[in-house]
Amino acid sequence: MGLSVRPTVLVSEVGPRDGLQNIQAILPLAVKQAWIAAEAAAGVREIEVGSFVSPKLLPQLADTAELVAFARQIPGLNVAVLVANRRGAEAAIAARVHKITIPLSVSETHSLRNVRRSHAEMLDEVRVIGALLRDLPPGERPVLEGGLSTAFGCTLEGPVPVERVARLGLALLQAGCDEIGLSDTAGYANPAQIKTVVRAVRAAVGEAALSSLHLHNTRGLGLANVLAGLDVGISTFDGSLCGLGGCPFAPGASGNVVTEDLVFMLESMGLDTGIDLARLLEVRRILRTALPQEPLHGFTADAGLPLHYADRGRRPA
Amino acid sequence: MGLSVRPTVLVSEVGPRDGLQNIQAILPLAVKQAWIAAEAAAGVREIEVGSFVSPKLLPQLADTAELVAFARQIPGLNVAVLVANRRGAEAAIAARVHKITIPLSVSETHSLRNVRRSHAEMLDEVRVIGALLRDLPPGERPVLEGGLSTAFGCTLEGPVPVERVARLGLALLQAGCDEIGLSDTAGYANPAQIKTVVRAVRAAVGEAALSSLHLHNTRGLGLANVLAGLDVGISTFDGSLCGLGGCPFAPGASGNVVTEDLVFMLESMGLDTGIDLARLLEVRRILRTALPQEPLHGFTADAGLPLHYADRGRRPA
Lengths: 317, 317
Known about the structure:
Shape of chain A: globular
Helix content of chain A: 40-55%
Largest interface: A-B, 53 and 53 residues
Order of helices and strands of chain A: EHHEHEHEHHEHEHEHEHHH
Strand order of the largest sheet of chain A: 1-2-3-4-5-6-7-8
CATH class of chain A: Alpha Beta
Low-confidence stretches of chain A: none
CATH topology of chain A: TIM Barrel
CATH superfamily of chain A: Aldolase class I
Mean pLDDT of chain A: 93
Radius of gyration of chain A: 19 Å
Largest sheet of chain A: 8 strands, parallel, barrel
Distance between the termini of chain A: 18 Å
Oligomer: homodimer
């Protein structure tokens, strides 16, 4: 009797961008559309549908504009994309996305290797994009997120100083970002470090400006790191269906947190993701059919849902 | 300069028992000895080397007495075994083990299916074993741990009431156990539940009597559950090298927490396991050679250690 009010957590699906950019196969537009529609129907409220980059560099994501147009038709879905520079941001604005993420690698070595730009050059680019966005009418202005990649260490530089993460977070805000996200690009993070870095960045940028984590499961700590993030008030976590993805420019780093396992953990803990896990698990079929050569990850899919899982909260736990 | 005092955590290796009892292959005694010696040399301080059960039921563990005799020669190693009844306990005492674990399944359905005994019958058995141990001279008395299996849910019964876990924990202590451990036999636990159940059991049995968790990674939450256990003061965690093992009587439940990934998480967080992770990872070779058909799990082994991992604590994190 009565309404149960559970704390909500936003699970942001990045598979159509981060997953697909890291595999060889190119999914047809219709398959991507079916994937996005099925996840949205399962209750996923934010999806990074692609990236506005050169189709020569990432032919897998060449149809991002069409996908944005499609995804914007889905009621209630927040449509996000990644861009690497001003040109990408212009395309994202033209496509009328809800959210633009621009990455800045805390490891300058990684930044130079990945996008051939120094920190100063990337911050200049963000400033230009911030100015573009300020010129838009408020109702048509996408949110600009600065994504601090390699925020917990880098395969090229090793550990990165937490002071540098905080300083670059503040620099991104000052350059025009609305919010900051932290990415464990290399799968180096541990739960204690998650808390330390989140607290340090928040001390620099303010509580509200840091709300999301993008974690990899490279060394199996993905969900433990999510738990640490929850403990310090993070409320948005990226996941990739079937764990597709990684970072081709950070050798050895592979494997996003599996969206299905992430949802299983959060919902089991009594948190509200708004996602119907049984329906989400069925979306895997689309990838299994379309990507027969690709290994699909996920413990919950292999093991199945626990007995009486659907009755959780109404039975003793 | 100066001693760094890190909090210690005991990682208890259960692979030679829990891992091997769940695979078809029978490892030769010499291979098991090499495995145990290599883990001890890497710094592992407690190993469950086998189980005193009928060799007809588990031929894989028929050499447990010889293994105990071998393992007892290794300085500083705590030698543990599992027993299911009085007869097993007598064999364990004769072999001079340091620790005996007797499981009691919180799900009575699982108990009847697994060892054909009700809760009352199992508690009677524990009482008899407790009396046997009390007759020994204090210096020769093994520690008796009551292991509450299916403590977080059961594939046959579904959720189990936390009050029953607490009541059975107290009953085990009253029957003669020195301490209690909780097992997530079915891989049903979530981090919020870990905290709830640990607190409830401790309220019944006292703080000191519950110090260990045996967690499975069935749905990928193993390390997140360890983290929740750390948060409520648990200081001993079981792991299985290469994630060998599971429970053949709980269908769908498979996969212990991988010892290597567990050590990686704890050490990365600044906790002291006493284990040299690089050496521990090398122990995998013994299993890879001896069990060529068996899938070996572990993210850290696949990904390798992070750059400058050995310098952790001496560099910025």
